[in-house]
Model the fold of this input.
Amino acid sequence: MRISLRGFFLALILTPCLCSSSNAQSAGRIKSMKLLAADTEWVSTDLKLFWTTSGGAQWKEITPKLNHKRQTVSSVFFLDSSTGWVLMHCADDLDPIADDVCFEFASTADAGENWSIVRPKIVDPFPHSAITEDLQGFSDATFLNFSDPHHGWAVLVRNLHVEVSPGEMLRTTDGGRTWRQLAKGTLPIARNLYFLNGKDGWMAGGPDHELYVTHDAGSIWQKVSLAKPASVGPDRNGDVTSTTCLLVLCGYLTYKATTMEDATEGPVPSHDRVAGKTTVGWQIVWFLLHVATVYTIVNFCTAWLAGWTRERILPHLQIRTTSSSQFEFLFSHLLTFSFVPAFLAGLINSRFKHRVAQFVWLIPTAILGYKLATFSAPSVFQSQLSAAFHQYFGGGFLIGEFRNWHDLWSIAGSNSDMTRGLTQMTFTAPFYAGVGYSLAAWIGLRTELHRKVSEKVNAREQSRFGQDS
Done:
């Protein structure tokens, strides 16, 4: 999973704003699904596995039952309408080392009517201190694939919040009755995999969208280099020259925003140039302060306002939310909770009459535009424009609730919607807030809002004092 260290720390900053006394964890949001035949399909959530043979008209729960305090449905794979496997993550909350490697495989040959459950021996090569103190054990994210009824592979992903999270691979050659863990360092990346047969398989992912192939059932992986089409330009992601151009563009916009008002007032006389330069200098200072205000609102007020609304306002109004977690609620309503507080703050600017506040939107817009232009589509089958729009403006978040810090680490490291939400919080929310702040500043200046409000307040006070006398 692609997640930056900055994004994870942003999640830690948002957590106190979103935490509440509610510890309910969603069990009803779809995590994965697959249509096996015209009317046969399976659907899984974090805790349940459901089966239908009526095209979705009727559903039956077929979740394997483990002998543990807690269990989650980590991965599901069915070869056909009867043969399938489920990888379950279990825990007893007694020993964190034992819970770290608590994975059990359930197999069925009758569409979940009966399950055979085995618990393979899994060794975590990481030190115990890294697992218990740094929470760098295995996450709930796993990948499962079978090429035929006998040969299967499973990938366990580690809770490392870096660009490429390592993992461990397990392999079976007897339909899941026994599993063998491959040597440490076998996997180049811990991502989704697909095997054509018992020997040949593929794995793709990572920050550079890399492709790997194996011809010995997963023991050795080789990177496959694909030539870029002639019509595709060079990868600009992380390019120093592009970053420098972005900084220059932001500096230019700052200067233009602070001098735009002076440009409409005609040339400055020569004897007033020193005073004019001083005025421009103060306008730059005020402009940067207004920009800082916008980003402060996004980083502190937006998350707090979303959590307060979900936990206090909506229950008081007896309104039920469809969001299954606090992060999901925040990211699904990011426009409202970033635009509204920034708009109200912009109205306050009418009192100070800082015209440069009208151009605050330029900075977050330039940064967001740069990110959109340099975004690389995760798949060659998806256009760059649609992929970028989904990344920075798309909704449809599915993020489960977290009960403790371990759950938060797991969600932040394995949920793609969490990564996308943090990205929108970093780049899209300042754009919403900047537009709201600048729009309010423009309205306040054009309508002389502060003067009109002051006149009404003074008139009301004089009327009241007049009646008292």
In short: The chain is about 40% helix and 15% strand. The chain has a mean pLDDT of 78.
